[in-house]
Amino acid sequence: MKLKTLSAAMILATVPMTGAFAAAMDRSGQSIAAFLQPGNYFEAGLSVLDPDVSGTTSAELGGQATGDMASDYYFPSAALKLQLTDNFSFGVIYDQPFGAKAEYTAQSIAFNPTGNDGTAAEVETENLTFLFGFQPTQNWNIYAGPVYQTAKGNVALRGEAYGPFGQLSYNANMKEDSELGWIAGLAYQIPEIALKASVTYRSEIKHELQATENITHPLAGELSGANMVGAMNPLAQYQPGKTAVTTPQSVNLDLQSGIMANTVGFLNIRWVNWDGFSIRPNDFGYVIDALVPGGNLVEYNEDQWSATAGVGRKFNEKWAGNVSVGWDSGAGNPVTTLGPTEGYWNLGLGLQYSPAANYFIAGGVKYFWLGDADALTAANPNVGEFEDNDAWGYGLKIGYRF
Predict the structure, then answer these.
(1) Residue 180's CB: how many other CB atoms inside 10 A?
(2) Which tens digit of pLDDT belongs to each residue from 52-75?
(3) What pLDDT is attached to residue 340?
(4) What are the backbone dihedrals phi and psi of residue 123, each rounded to the nearest 5 degrees, phi first?
(5) Which residues contact 286 (CB under 8 A, 6 or more apart)?
(6) Measured distance CA(69)–CA(62) in Å, rounded
(7) pLDDT band (50, 70, 90) for residue 21
(8) Which end of the chain is least crowded, N or C, by CB within 10 Å?
(9) Which of 272, 283, 278 is nearest to 245 (CA)?
(10) Percent helix, strand, coil in the chain (nearest 5)?
(11) Coil, strand, or helix at residue 229?
(12) How many CA atoms lie within 13 A of 8 on its CB side?
């Protein structure tokens, strides 16, 4: 079972949508599979997620339907790998590893009292991962490198779910910040049986985002900074500062092996250290402390575990396909109202067309059964229940060997 006969099916093991709706704010899955392809290689892809997430608020908040609060989003990816010599390789990978997008458009006292201007939030990150690999033999690959990451976000809170913000409106715009982290890993392969195994560690990356925050009061007009805090909580001390956000460390374990002629099995296991993650903008912290000392805008209390397993098969010289099943643990329950699901199960299908031996076009689709979750905020531990939700994910990727 030579590598040549399995090359198409091996690429199918990395078809898009491996982590499109994962726990907390995990999006891309942070794969480095492109770097482990033989020879010189380039790929570019686009993943799209269409979620449907809704729930019912608690009796204290009117027992109202929230409507679909999960906005569609897409995220591109790209990778370039160069085999500089028999023993040294270099690669660069672009992805958007973490993010969130939520918008409550249905009218409710909890999230959108007026029906026009509801609670909404968006968080975006971008990564450039630089990899330097050393291959002492054809079987082993030791790799490491720096990671350049940017992060930014904005949030608008409306409604009684947010305590004092039920009678006010809170806005925060967190400007883009860039910081460095690092990556390291080890891979082993036996090309004759299409065996590949790799373990990859990514460090946490600490950001400090300059946040512009303001509150609009229906009687007193717009307040901000020290005036805002003084109006809401006369005992609070205003201290200017930035919002600290640390994107989590993670480990990816990838396995692949030929199981019969023209057929490979693959498995990805991912751990992300979400336990203890929080976002607490500076002024938000002082205001919310009037009700709940130590409250956070976003927080998670459990680590995420996820797994994807499947089979890829080459049908002929031009066509190959795969099927996969995935599971995600979630990052704890109750969860924030800006992402009220707890884990998932999914089923995926992929198809690849190779017009020539050195390039291909691959597409994939996944259906997600999203886990039920109870929602909370810093000011309210019982906002409501989100049940029976789902999502569709779509991916498209092109690859080229040169």
Answers:
(1) 11
(2) 999 999 999 999 999 999 989 888
(3) 93
(4) -125, 135
(5) 229, 233, 236, 237, 238, 239
(6) 17
(7) low
(8) C
(9) 278
(10) 10, 55, 35
(11) helix
(12) 27
Report CA Rg, the chain. Answer: 23
Listed in order, strand segments (DSSP E) in 39-194 are 41-52, 55-57, 73-83, 88-95, 99-103, 120-134, 140-157, 169-190
**Is the predicted pLDDT of residue 233 greater than 80, yes or no?**
no
Helices (H), 214-354: 225-232, 282-288
Q: Cα–Cα distance between 155 and 159 in angstroms, integer? A: 13
Tokens of 371: 């886990």
C-beta separation of 261 from 5 below 8 A: yes
Name the residue with tokens 């033999």.
137
Residue 216 has pLDDT above 90, yes or no: no
- Grouping H, G, I as helix, E, B as strand and the rest as coil, residue 301 is coil
Domains of the chain by range and CATH? Answer: 3-401 (2.40.160.60)
Which distant-in-sequence residues (6+ apart) come within 8 Å of 12 by Cβ?
A: 312, 320, 321, 322, 350, 352, 362
User: Which residue is listed with tokens 């999230």?
Assistant: 111
Task: Give me the pLDDT at residue 73, please.
Answer: 87
- With beta carbons less than 8 A apart as the criterion, state whether 345 and 309 touch: no
Report how far apart, in Å, the C-alpha atoms of 320 and of each of 41, 47, 314 are. Answer: 19, 20, 4
What's the CA gap between 250 and 80, in Å, rounded?
Answer: 22
CA nearest neighbour of 82 among 71, 95, 74, 91? 91
Helices (H), 96-159: none
Contact 402, 358 (CB under 8 A): yes
